[in-house]
What we know:
The protein is an alpha+beta fold. It folds into three domains: 2-83, no CATH class; 110-339, Hypothetical protein af1432; 347-424. Helices cover 45% and strands 12% of the residues. The protein has 16 helices and ten strands. The strands form two sheets. A five-stranded antiparallel sheet has the order 3-2-4-1-5. A hairpin with a 4-residue loop joins strand 8 and strand 9. Helix 3 (110-136) crosses helix 6 (176-194) and helix 6 (176-194) crosses helix 12 (286-301). It is globular. The two termini are 40 Å apart.
Amino acid sequence: MLKRIQIQDLTLGMYLHEFCGSWMEHPFWRAKFLIKDPNDLARIQATAIHECWIDTDKGADVAPGTASVSREEADARIETDFNRLEDLPPLQVSLPVPPPPQRDHAPADLRHELKRAASICMRSKKAVVSMFNEARMGRAVDAAAAQNLVEEISDSVTRNPGALISLARLKTADDYTYMHSVAVCGLMVALARQLKLDDAQTRLAGMAGLLHDLGKAAVPLAVLNKPGKLTDQEFTVVRSHPVAGYHMLKEGGQVSDAVLDACLHHHEKIDGTGYPDKLQGDAISVIARMTAICDVYDAITSDRPYKRGWDPSESLRRMAEWTTDHFDARLFQAFVKSIGIYPVGSLVRLTSGRLGVVIEQAPAALTTPRVKVFFSTKSDLRIPPEVVDLAAPGATEKIVARENPDQWNFPDLNELWSGLTEKAW
C-alpha cells in the first residue's frame, strides 16, 4: 500500500517509493529503494522536500498515530480540486512593462500550427545553442535576437497554445538544456495569456522563460548531461546556476529587472525552502513564481539522460500534490487552465474502453478535449484512428481514466497526436 508521509517520519526499513517533489530538488538518482543506510536517511531528511510516498508492502509501515495519506485519498482530493477549476474566477496580475505594439495573432488550427511550430522550434534551438555558447565565452546576450525569438514563440502560442508547447516537450535528452528554454518560454506565454496580461507583459514573461536557465552555461556539460547520480558537490554546482545566470544577464545590461529576478529566483518555493535566497510567499515576485511552475512542468515531462519524462496529465497531478510547499496555488490553477487538465499528448481511456491521445483542448471546458482514439481495450487491438470531440453537442463519451504510456508502449504515440514524424520535431 502506498502512503504519503512527512520526510521526517521516514525510518530505516521503510521502502521509499517516490519523493513528493521534482528530481531537481534531491541528489538521489533512484527514487525507489529500501532505506537501509543511515547516511541515506540523513541525506533524504536534509533535502528541501517535505513529503514522500512509501510502499508498506515492500518495507516498514509508519508507527500508529503517524499522519499519512493513502494514494486513493490523494487522487480523490486532486480530482475534486481540478474539477472545480472551471468555476474559479480568472486571476488578475500585472507585470511592469510599457504599452505593447500591435501584432497579428490570427488563430490557427492545430495541424497547420504544428508545422509552423516545428520550424520555429528548430530555429529557436539553434539560436539558444548559440546564446549559451556565447555565454560560456563570457559574451553578453544579444537581447534583440532573444526578443525576436520570444515574439515568434509568443505568436505561435497565441495562434494555437497546444502546438509549440507540446512539440517542445519532445526534446531529446541531449537537446534538453536548449529546448527547455524554448519550452518554458512557450509555457510562460500561455500562462501570461491565461492571466489576461497584455502583449508587452506576455513578451516579458516569455523572455523570462527563454533566459531563466542561462546560468547553466556556467555548469560543466559533463555534470549537466551526467546519466547517473550526482555527487553532493555536483549537485551544489547545478544549484549555482540561478546566481550565475543573474550575473551574466546583469553584466550584459540589456534585460529588464523582472527578467533578472525570474532568472535568480525561479527555484524559490512558497514555503521558503528554495534557493538561492530562501524567499517565502509574496517575497517571491509574480514573474519568478510563474517561471517556477513552468520550469518544473517542462523538466518533469521531458526525457533526461537519467530518467524518462512523466506523462503530461500525470505530471500536473503530481505537481498539485506539491503546491502547498512549492508553488503559488492560484498561479498553478491558472497554469492548469492554460494547458488543460489533460494536456496535448496525454493518453486517456474513454467510456467505450477505447484509448486515445489528446490532440487539442476545448475552448470552454477543461474536461472535454478532442481525442484521437486508436486502440480498443475490449478487443486488445489497434483500430482505425478517429477524432472524437468530447465537447461536441450530443457527445456520449467522456474520459474515465488517465493511462500510463510506459505500460502500453505505443511506438507512434507522439506521431498520432502531432501528425509529424520524429525527424520533423
